[in-house]
């Protein structure tokens, strides 16, 4: 599942459903009774896995799975394709995180149940993007006509890649990429922006662009994807958003972060009404509930698991 598996209209329906869930949680409390979600996490996670599990439990379903590759048959050499065929016998839907780019896609091809990509290496993180889009839509009232600054590790940050990919399809989005030279957005993403004449700018200093932003998307430097410790240490504190920097921002600028945060947002920003990163976590549960419901319904419409 990638954000582009849905059209903009289908995304709108998904977000309408997520907003209805937010307002009328009780109405959905038994929607997935008897259904099981498997979470297959080959890479560490707190939010995404627990958010998926909470979503399924809120819908009255149950959950099973593993949170560490070392606790799965991967250590015995089992392929992802075989694992998913086995999981398909146990569960109705699966959320998979894997360090290898494309692994959840390979699994989806071999699976008889829906497989949701919960993050694949430095590539994509579609459900974080659904979370980000729902947060922006709910708090700003629209998904078009704004300037978004993406700041930090734009090279390895998969949430950034998925978010750019999704926002490309909305009207009037102006991208400002803020990163050190070494952590710029990969060329394959920039090429698409160029091809489609979508406005973007690449800068190094956050201060230079802060007053222009309607939304600032901060990210941590992705330690686990660095080839050498020295580079990580040199770059890890390149950006630190603090109270003082927030003074240069528009009064209604929204600060998002997929979390976990390391040092890139100082805790003194947390009480600023513009800091939306903890609200974002809550929206993540609503949108995953909406996604599970939508995918299980489409399985039902197709008649069974296949
Ligand atoms: C992100 C991820 O795993 O890519 N975390 C998350 O799922 N919310 C961001 C990160 O790890 O920096």
Secondary-structure map with pairings?
Layout: H1 8-23, E1 36-41, H2 47-58, E2 62-66, H3 80-90, E3 93-98, H4 103-110, E4 115-120, H5 126-140, E5 146-151, H6 158-167, E6 173-178, H7 187-195, E7 200-203, E8 215-218, H8 229-235, H9 243-246, E9 254-256, H10 277-302
Parallel strand pairs: 1-2, 1-3, 3-4, 5-6, 5-8, 6-7, 8-9
Helix pairs in contact: 1-5, 1-10, 2-10, 3-4, 5-6, 5-10
The structure holds N-carbamoyl-L-aspartate (NCD).
N-carbamoyl-L-aspartate is lined by residues 47-48, 119, 125, 128, 158-159, 219-220, 258-260.
What does this entry look like structurally?
The protein has ten helices and nine strands. It is an alpha/beta fold. It has two domains: 3-121 and 283-301, Rossmann fold (3-Layer(aba) Sandwich); 126-275, Aspartate/ornithine carbamoyltransferase (Rossmann fold, 3-Layer(aba) Sandwich), CATH 3.40.50. Helix 6 (158-167) links the parallel strand 5 and strand 6. The longest helix is centred in the C-terminal third of the chain and has 26 residues, at 277-302. It starts with 7 loop residues before the first helix and ends with a helix. The site of N-carbamoyl-L-aspartate has 12 residues, from helix 2 and helix 6. N-carbamoyl-L-aspartate (NCD) is lined by residues 47-48, 119, 125, 128, 158-159, 219-220, 258-260.
């Amino acid at each position: 599942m990638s954000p582009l598996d849905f059209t903009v209209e289908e995304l709108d329906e998904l977000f309408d459903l997520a907003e209805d869930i937010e307002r009328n949680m009780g109405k959905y409390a038994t929607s997935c009774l008897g259904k099981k979600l498997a979470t297959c996490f080959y890479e560490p996670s707190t939010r995404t896995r627990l958010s998926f599990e909470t979503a399924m439990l809120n819908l009255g379903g149950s959950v099973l799975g593993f949170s560490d590759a070392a606790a799965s048959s991967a250590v015995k050499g089992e392929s992802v394709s075989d694992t998913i065929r086995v999981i398909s016998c146990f569960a109705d839907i699966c959320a998979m995180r894997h360090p290898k780019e494309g692994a959840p896609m390979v699994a989806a091809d071999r699976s008889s149940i829906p497989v949701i990509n919960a993050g694949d290496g430095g590539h994509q993180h579609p459900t974080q993007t659904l979370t980000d889009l729902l947060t922006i839509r709910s708090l700003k009232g629209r998904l078009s006509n704004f300037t978004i600054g993406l700041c930090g590790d734009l090279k390895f940050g998969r949430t950034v890649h998925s978010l750019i990919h999704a926002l490309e399809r909305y009207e009037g989005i102006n991208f400002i990429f803020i990163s050190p030279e070494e952590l710029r957005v990969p060329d394959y993403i920039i090429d698409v922006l160029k091809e489609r004449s979508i406005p973007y700018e690449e800068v190094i200093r956050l201060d230079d662009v802060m007053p222009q932003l309607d939304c600032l998307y901060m990210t941590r430097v992705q330690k686990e994807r660095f080839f050498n410790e020295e580079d990580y240490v040199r770059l890890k504190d390149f950006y630190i958003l603090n109270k003082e920097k927030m003074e240069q921002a528009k009064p209604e600028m929204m600060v998002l972060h997929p979390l976990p945060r390391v040092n890139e947002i100082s805790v003194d920003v947390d009480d600023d009404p513009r800091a939306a990163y903890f609200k974002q976590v809550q929206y993540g549960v609503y949108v995953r509930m909406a996604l599970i419901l939508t995918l299980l319904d489409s399985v039902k419409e197709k008649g069974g698991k296949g």
